[in-house]
Specification:
The protein contains 25 helices and 24 strands. It is α+β, with helices and mostly antiparallel strands and about 675 residues long. The chain binds 2-(butylsulfanyl)adenosine.
């Protein structure tokens, strides 16, 4: 190769690299190299162009190098966490939402009034005002810690720097969505995939002057901490802050019935394309803030709100092949490999077929012409088959009864639905390589060990290179070997080392969630951690005899039923699972689960409930006890302080046991008195 060819090759390689890192930064919001490394790469490209002018004629860097790299902004803890929303995709999901909140609040007749607001597809930020003055501005970050982007936020037009009103709370935290309008986006020359990414990129600019050149707009939609609390409804909050010169969305509407919910949804969907900003659904919020307060949050999202997404974009394509995928719980999911097709701006080449029954019901075959749809971040799905286009010689698809690892798969019998599960599963746990790899991806994920720099792709790569085969391998990585791999430099290795080291100290609830026992999600992991309290107690589950005794007590815990205890039993009956978890524990410092001591009516008290209450559901009673510093137990023991007895069908045996142990009994009327006192 002559020298010129060599230079062109080198130049193209560097541009490819830069594009890759732009993508990590702008599209995935997950930069893989430091600012300095990025700057060096950019400089090298400039230098090559300076010394070899013919490179400029190749026109490869147009719109590419202008964008500044990520800045590591200061991380600041949110005054109250910035949660996400759970999703509804159809009216039945919305009915479920209404049913759940009515059950929780023990409402039977009245409709609960909701406020329907457009869900702006932008970047969320929170603004903190002290005595009316804007003092802090944070990005969402991981929900608990945000990035200090105040100076960039200050550049947004119409965002109040000072609230000029006498009646403002001393502390006011306004949550908003920052966006770039569709028309402004058209005029932007940078290489962003969509307005949302452009808004994210702009907000995270190093230099606020650069941000100020990009026409960012915002809608304020909610509040975080407010002291003193002066608002009574979400609607009133929005009207008030709009008087204080915040921009709020004009399309919010009060709805009360499920008909209204659907009507508003179709109306906004219809006018959606005429709006100058992207929305991807409506957020339905309970309007009454005291009801919001009663409902509270689950670990990730408020119970009082839901995002009802617009129906997805659809496209027609053809199935090239049907393969199977093995999930971390062993679930076998059939996947259609399709002719690549663009759906809603994204190229799709895989679509899920859900399960064996779905393939049978729709009689889906290889070679079929199908309609697929993609909704939000969810995996595209196969909607229907056009049988008129089917080849006469096509044959029904025979579902493979073996896992990719070669072992038999089974369908479980569900005790709660009394039916065979629709999903086929491989039950080899960590002994199946395909499950093991997925479990590893779960372990490093954000909600679990949260190891920065060790994402799904890296797990795949490290697995293939035999660097990680089981969870404990994460903590004895061969960094010398990694150093030799493409894309890894001293800085990224050091960052990985730090992230791995940091994750070695983990709380018991996160640990329980991380090991991936089926039916044990974040909520249940917390309940279990509250029960076991320490690693020592939790590891007693390893012993089959002791396990049986523990499981009997666990069934009484609120939230834990037979489905969960059977699953825990299955998990620890598998010798490989136990060995793997033991090895992992040896590398960790697992912190005891401490429920934060909250000052309240039940501080440091242990309560148990039996029977139903007139004014509230059991879930609400439990959440009230916890909000007041109490701990809710599931079985009667000497540890218990109070047995709270609801009037509707309490268990006599429990009341007798409590009496024998001299545990104080609180009747429903006394419970109500205590709460109102
Ligand atoms: S309310 C979860 N209202 O959607 C806390 N969110 O998926 C309550 N968003 O982080 C959120 N428009 O960035 C709410 N009218 C709206 C919204 C909205 C956009 C974003 C927001 C939030 C995300 C949750």
């Amino acid at each position: 190769m002559n020298e010129k060819n060599e230079i062109v090759k080198n130049y193209k390689l560097k541009i490819k690299n830069l594009k890759k890192h732009n993508k990590y930064y702008y599209e995935k919001d997950n930069p893989k190299i430091s600012d300095a490394e990025y700057d060096t790469l950019k400089q090298e490209i400039f230098d090559l162009e300076k010394n070899n002018k013919y490179l400029i004629d190749l026109n490869l860097t147009k719109n590419l190098v202008g964008s500044a790299p990520a800045k590591r902004f200061k991380k600041i803890k949110h005054l109250s966490p910035m949660l996400s929303l759970s999703n509804a995709f159809n009216i039945d999901d919305m009915r479920d939402f209404q049913k759940k909140i009515s059950n929780f609040l023990n409402y039977t007749k009245q409709n609960i009034v909701l406020l329907a607001e457009p869900k702006i597809d932008g970047i969320s930020a929170t603004l903190i005002y002290e005595k009316g003055k804007l003092v802090k501005g944070l990005s969402r970050g991981d929900g608990l810690y945000g990035e200090d982007i105040l100076e960039n936020l200050r550049t947004i037009k119409n965002l109040p720097q000072k609230i000029l009103s006498k009646d403002i709370p001393n502390l006011l935290e306004v949550r908003c969505e920052v966006y770039i309008s569709k028309s402004d986006f058209k005029n932007l020359k940078d290489n962003f995939a969509n307005p949302r990414n452009a808004a994210g990129g702009s907000l995270r600019q190093k230099d606020p002057k650069v941000t100020s050149k990009i026409p960012l707009k915002y809608f304020a939609y909610g509040f975080g901490s407010v002291k003193p609390m002066i608002f009574k409804t979400q609607d009133e909050f929005l009207v008030t802050i709009s008087k204080w010169n915040f921009i709020t969305n004009p399309l919010s509407k009060i709805v009360a019935s499920i008909n209204d919910v659907e009507k508003q949804h179709s109306y906004i969907d219809k006018i959606r394309s005429s709006l100058d900003y992207d929305i991807d659904g409506l957020v339905y919020k309970i309007n009454d803030l005291s009801l919001q307060q009663r409902l509270g949050n689950t670990s990730n999202s408020p119970r009082w709100a839901i995002a009802y997404k617009f129906s997805a974009e659809k496209a027609i394509t053809r199935i090239k092949d049907i393969t199977i995928q093995v999930g971390r719980t062993g679930a076998i999911t059939p996947v259609a490999k399709v002719e690549p097709v663009t759906v809603g701006g994204v190229i799709v080449s895989n679509a899920t077929l859900h399960n064996e029954d779905e393939i049978k019901r729709k009689d889906i075959r290889i070679g079929d012409t199908i309609q697929i749809q993609r909704a939000g971040d969810v995996i595209p799905q196969v909607l229907s088959v056009d049988k008129s286009k089917r080849d006469k010689k096509s044959k029904s698809f025979i579902f493979p009864y073996k896992c990719l690892c070669g072992s038999k798969t089974t369908k479980e019998y569900s005790k709660s639905t009394k039916k065979l599960d629709a999903v086929r599963r491989c039950i080899k746990g960590y002994s199946c390589d395909f499950i093991a790899k997925e479990k590893l991806k779960h372990i490093v994920s954000k909600e679990a060990f949260d190891i920065d720099g060790l994402g799904k792709k890296v797990i795949e790569q490290f697995w293939d290179l035999n660097l990680i085969k089981k969870p404990s391998d994460i903590f004895s990585l061969n960094y010398d070997k990694i150093k030799k791999l493409e894309g890894w430099g001293t800085l990224s290795i050091n960052n990985l080392k730090k992230a791995v080291e940091k994750s070695q100290t983990i709380s018991l609830d996160k640990f329980i969630y991380s090991i991936g026992i089926r039916h044990i999600g974040q909520e249940n992991a917390k309940i279990l951690a509250g029960f076991f309290n320490s690693k020592k107690e939790f590891t007693k589950l390893f012993d089959s005899k002791i396990r049986k005794k523990i499981l009997i007590n666990l069934v009484d815990l609120d939230g834990i039923g037979e489905t969960q205890t059977d699953s825990i039993d299955n998990f620890f009956s598998n010798e490989t699972n136990v060995t793997i978890i033991r090895d992992l524990i040896n590398k960790l410092n697992i912190k005891n689960y401490s429920i934060q001591n909250i000052d309240g009516k039940f501080s440091n008290k242990k309560l148990m409930f039996t029977g139903g209450f007139k004014n509230m559901s059991r879930s609400e009673a439990k959440s009230i006890a916890e909000k007041n510093g109490g701990k809710v137990l599931g079985s009667i023991s000497k540890k218990l302080d109070f047995l709270v007895v609801g009037e509707s069908k309490p268990t006599k045996r429990k009341i007798e046991q409590a009496k024998q142990l001299n545990i104080k009994i609180i009747l429903e009327k006394d419970w109500n008195k205590i709460l109102n006192s």
